[in-house]
Amino acid sequence: MPTRARAWLPDELILALDLYFQKGPNPGADAAQELSEVLRSIPIEPEQAEDPKFRSPQSVTYKLQNFVAVDPSRPTQGFSHGGRLDEEIFKRFSEDPNELHEVAMAIRANLGSISPEEAEENEESVEDAKEGRLLTRIHRKRERSTKLRRAKKKRVEKETGRLACEACDLDFGESYGARGKGFIECHHIVPLHTLKPNQRTKLDDLALLCPNCHRVLHMRKPWLTVEAVRGLVERHDDAASKVRE
Question: pLDDT for 102-127, tens place per residue?
């Protein structure tokens, strides 16, 4: 896996692209210095920041020129030796600079909300969201809150009498008896670009999902909504019913 010194992370590219859209490809020394300091503070592989050349103002300036090379609105060529991810991030966010700015501000605001160890945690079945690794890890951290999960399950069971997946309606207690009773996962439905440090997660911010639906939701970018996963399940059930007929 490339280190940050050799390959820019999506989080870093989002911050650099936001500067590109806010200030243009030549933002000035102060803006490059400010972004350099932010990039060096990201809690992912923090040991890289021990190198004074790591994400220096000069490297920021070079990265903005990489964006020029993939920006069809720019008559100049820029530096075309940027990475494939540069073009992917540009295409993903260039049509909505406002969304890009919101995501960049959320990354900046949450830099101190997660430890390097938490930032490096990874799950094979979970793809980082389009908003980058940092916000993805904060999202997953909130989903795993034992206190919130218990409170959400208690409220739903009191209101409905069961704990069913909101996408496929599977209730482990109904399907597996005592061994499955009470088993369900929580999904944090609040958009990642709205995450704020120390933000209080409400029970309405959580949806109950079975592990299969939860992993399908997180499996690829862009992540699906609970409604989208429910639609997939319903279409599959309809197709299966027609085959049986």
Answer: 999 999 999 988 888 888 877 766 78
